[in-house]
Write a structure and sequence with these properties.
single chain; alpha+beta; Jelly Rolls; 5-stranded antiparallel sheet; 3-stranded antiparallel sheet; 15 strands; globular
Amino acid sequence: MSEPRFYVDDCPATYPVADWIKRQLPWREAKNDVIRKVIDRKDTSFVFQFTGNLEGLQQSVSEALDTVGFHGWLSAEGEGRVYGGYSITYNPDLIYKDQPIHQHTLGTKLNSFATGDFYTGSARNHNGMLKNSYLDGASFNEFTPAAKIGYMGEFLEEINKNVTVTRSRLGIVKGNKTSLEMNYHVDAEMFELTRLNIPISGDDNFLFEIQGKQPYVLELGKAYSWHTEWPHRVYCYKETNTDRANMVIGWSPWLTYNKEERYWYPNEYFGKKHPFDMLIDGDVTDKIKLIESF
């Protein structure tokens, strides 16, 4: 029996594409089945050794920044100067027509930090039009020109052959001032969007923190994934001459996109495998090896 196909052009404008698809699949049952299989596992954060070409990643990120520049996070308050970077993926149909493609995954002027719109991805300022908005994470699935540079481009294409890479960015926290006030946020459900973080630059003055847990430093030469539905943040606690840069690679564990025909379908892992196990078993990339989980 052929897999169901969900054509993005059929998705109503009032839904993010992934939400529309999940409504038509036994998504909750599939998720609960997989969670029950790993119910004894208490670990929600994972540290990997990055076995790919770190120097090649660093060189291509540097070249991309020289080419496209730093783009600050967009909000109703303006363009930020503390956090930004450039988009690894973009959405050609994004509804904000004045937003450069290398800024597509870096916020939206319709949402405000002052009212907490970014904490859980509030839709209240979008007048119900959510398809092709910032909240439509699955639709950010085209690689930007910056993402195609050098080894970074090779690495991302390798991942994209195994799973569909979606909303991703090169995230930079500036080190020229402290950012202890950086807000916590949560991301999309991890069965829809899982993230792999690879440090590119930084020092011990930059911390990653899951709310209620001890902050820690994301180290060069390693890669990280965690339960992103829990509140978390990154910040600079002491001024430094270094900027902290991370590749934040979002990928779709259970849905795969057919770019040529513009449809999504549930893949072989749907309802069968936890996203963390996909990372551990090399289903996403063979360039990481598990060191520890906690």
